[in-house]
Write a structure and sequence with these properties.
alpha/beta; 23% strand; five-stranded parallel β-sheet; 769 residues; globular; six-stranded mixed β-sheet
Length: 769
């Protein structure tokens, strides 16, 4: 579903935010990709809640995965890149999105769907002492904390909800229902909880009809909720809030569901905004102040058809926005969108009861909640079934690419024709010098005094001095990209290459890069190189390793590797080798296992986005501090766990050391989801080769059915360090590793004297289940 090699990337559509409208856009592009057009989704959260089911989640009727859309999986399904980050600005001239934690992202056309943001700054103290419903990830964390505190500590708790619209009322009732049931389940009095609703309006639910309001007024009264209408909250302090009349109201928890507006960073763009900071758009959902930028959902204000901020509009804008984004990059006319005048709202009361509101209509009952539940579950089921029913990728002849409809200027057309033509080999396959010069111009590799000739004064080769008393350590690693984010891929590739240096206790000195980049327009190739090398240089610089040169060529896939040089004492003091293991020592592993199976599952859309997030975070963590810690605590041998898997690298240590080893399967630290994907039979393509070493295991047949057995052979990318440490130092070493950020470091086994058998590795009985 991604652009094929026959069709280079000609235009970039960047989607900022993972709201309901962009979910619809991704689904439509997945069903009908536009040749030559690449989608990129930038979103801070990997899992976005479906707003229709969020109150049910708070009330306890649904679990987290029932109500959240997995944006990483959806992006993969749509052939889109997923960049987990937060937009903080726009450079209109350079046509880039400015991000909080990564380089700017280039766009030809952009769409913004980031929802609304509670304006906490308009009320003193609200930002410090109240919990806004949005962004939802922050509210969810606080909600889970509140749940735990009330469950574990029997004290009276006063909850205040500020905002009398449908969102505030529905959220309050859901919270009250869930917390009351939790107390009852513990044989405690639900009267320990008290709830109050505050709204500046004279009525609650002001956009709904009188009958709907009357029903909810009655519900709130029956459930002993104190309602303060005509009450404008003007200040918030710890455990209390103040109204415009100067009265203070006690509250242990304050939830903010009002005063929503556009994100603050939008004020620094050139986009036209309404009085509340929302992006003004015309009937085609395009900004009148920048024809390359669109907006939809709550963040958009339709100039000619203003509507209430409701999820129904965001969902229905998916199709027209997708059609107009497609039209914008192909030079076709845009089509107007006309939102409906009346819409159906199904508002729940927390207790599997709901009220239907549409215009002047109102009806309610348990059956309305069941109706709403069916609608919501059907929406999520349709989304999930598209991901789960996707057939596995198969090798075979590639279908011819459909001709691109993207209009190009003369220079771009020549480049596109060149990219699609048969390419030269040898030096003819190098990326052009101007492209490389521009891509690396903004990089700032760390400087080392030993580098006599490097990137600061490029020549045919780098010249590096070896400091007196030092010996050189050389290593090289290279692999193709397994994620669509070139910046993260650059960080991981650099971390992976540095792993061998750190495992030997060496200091990283210099690195030379080798990369292949898919063919395409010069601007697209340049941006890919820039993103990738920015990530790599950040990691190299943090390690004190100077990038001194490299080579970049065209290839069918993005790939990156490094030849890294390091320094050790020429007397070999402090060098950690594989052959130093001694009987009686313990084995420590500094990072969890599972990257091989997880990314194999990711390619099949079978891994949850948060599993991949955690794996990427682990892969981006440097082994440098871990190596220092292991050396300080007397490690006698060390290696990094990479392509051969845990068992393969352990065998590489036991054989030259002349020892046997014992592993405790139950003690192995694993990345979240790894056991699930292995249980589903999803394994890395390198797994079969690694499993040839299974005969290194004693009593093999007793373990082949253990659920963790396959993970012994799982190949790791940028994995952790495996070290042999004296038993008397192990506890202190482990404590220091955890303190330095290696939270999943574990003691996983022991070293034994060599036995009489040929198999050097045995598995601990405590690992059996």
């Amino acid at each position: 579903m991604q652009p094929t090699p026959q069709q280079p990337v000609l235009r970039d559509i960047v989607l900022v935010g993972g709201g309901h409208t962009h979910v619809g856009v991704l689904k439509r592009f997945a069903m009908a990709p536009e040749p030559g057009v690449r989608l990129t989704l930038i979103c801070r959260d990997t899992h976005t809640p479906y707003s229709g089911m969020l109150p049910g989640y708070i009330a306890g009727h649904y679990c987290y995965d029932d109500v959240h859309i997995d944006l990483r999986r959806l992006a993969e399904y749509a052939g889109a890149r997923f960049f987990r980050d937060e937009a903080i600005g726009i450079d209109h001239d350079a046509r880039t999105v400015l991000c909080r934690s990564r380089p700017p992202v280039s766009y030809d056309v952009m769409s913004i769907n980031i929802g609304s943001t509670p304006r906490m700054d308009s009320v003193g103290g609200a930002g410090d002492h109240a919990v806004p419903v949005k962004p939802i990830h922050r509210f969810n964390d606080r909600w889970q904390t509140l749940l735990h505190r009330i469950e574990e500590h029997p004290v009276k708790t006063r909850v205040a909800v500020v905002g009398g619209g449908a969102g505030g009322v529905e959220l309050l009732l859901a919270m009250q229902y869930r917390l009351g049931r939790e107390l009852a389940a513990r044989e405690r009095d639900p009267a320990e909880l008290s709830f109050a609703l505050y709204t500046r309006g004279e009525t609650i639910l002001p956009t709904h009809n009188a009958r709907v309001r009357a029903r909810f007024e009655d519900t709130l009264a029956r459930r002993h909720v104190t309602v303060h209408t005509g009450t404008d909250v003007v200040a918030v302090e710890a455990k209390r809030l103040k109204d415009a009349d100067g009265h203070w109201h006690a509250a242990d928890e304050i939830v903010w569901v009002t005063n929503a507006g556009g994100a603050a960073w939008l004020r620094d763009t050139h986009l036209a905004l309404d009085d509340d900071g929302f992006i003004e758009v015309d009937d085609t959902l395009r900004s009148p102040s920048d024809p390359r930028i669109f907006a939809a959902g709550d963040i958009a204000h339709l100039i000619n058809h203003p509507r209430e901020k409701a999820g129904v509009f965001a969902v229905r804008q998916g199709r027209p926005l997708a059609d107009n984004l497609r039209a914008a990059v192909t030079g076709r006319p845009l089509r107007p969108y006309r939102p409906q005048v009346k819409w159906l709202a199904l508002i729940s009361t927390g207790d599997r009861h709901a009220v239907a509101s549409r215009g002047g209509l109102c009806f309610a009952g348990d059956w309305v909640w069941r109706w709403k539940d069916r609608i919501d579950r059907r929406f999520m089921a349709r989304f999930m079934s598209q991901l789960n029913d996707l057939p596995p990728m198969q090798a075979g002849p590639m279908k011819p690419a459909r001709a691109s409809r993207v209009p190009l200027d003369a220079a771009e057309n020549d480049q596109a024709i060149s990219a699609m033509a048969m390419r030269c080999g040898g030096c003819g396959a190098k990326v052009g010098a101007p492209v490389l010069s521009r891509a690396i111009a903004e990089l700032a590799p760390v400087e080392r005094e030993e580098v006599l000739i490097g990137l600061h004064a490029p020549d045919d080769a780098a010249v590096v001095r070896v400091p007196p008393g030092k010996a050189m350590v050389h290593t090289v690693d290279f692999f193709r990209a397994f994620i669509d984010d070139p910046y993260l891929f650059g960080k991981i590739a650099a971390n992976h290459a540095l792993g061998d240096i750190f495992a030997m206790g060496a200091e990283a000195q210099t690195a030379t890069a080798i990369a292949t980049v898919p063919q395409g327009l010069e601007a697209k190739v340049e941006d890919t190189v820039f993103q990738m090398m920015t990530g790599a240089v950040e990691v190299l610089n943090a390690a004190g390793c100077a990038l001194v040169g490299g080579h970049t060529g065209e290839g069918s896939e993005l790939a990156l590797g490094f030849a890294v040089n390091g320094l050790v004492d020429e007397r070999m003091d402090g060098v950690l080798r594989k052959d130093g293991m001694r009987p009686g020592e313990v084995l420590i592993l500094t990072k969890p296992l599972g990257t091989g199976t997880l990314f194999a599952a990711h390619a099949r859309l079978a891994a949850r986005g948060r599993w991949i997030d955690a794996a990427l975070e682990s892969m981006c963590q440097s082994n440098r501090q871990a190596a220092d810690c292991l050396r300080e605590h007397g490690a006698s041998a060390c290696t990094d766990i990479t392509g051969f898997g845990l068992l393969g690298h352990l065998v590489e240590m036991t054989r030259p050391s002349g020892v046997d080893a014992e592993l405790d399967l139950a003690a192995l630290p694993l990345l979240e989801g790894a056991e699930e994907t292995v249980a589903a039979g999803i394994l890395s393509s390198l797994q079969p080769a690694n499993m040839r070493l299974r005969h290194a295991l004693q009593d093999l047949q007793a373990w082949v059915d253990h659920p963790r057995y396959p993970l012994l052979f799982d190949p790791q990318t940028a994995g952790g360090l495996l070290a042999s440490v004296p038993t008397e130092h192990a506890a202190a070493c482990l404590a220091d590793l955890v303190a330095q950020g290696y939270a999943r470091a574990r003691i996983i086994g022991r070293v034994h004297p060599a036995g009489d058998g040929l198999a050097p590795i045995r598995l601990s009985p405590s690992g059996k289940r």
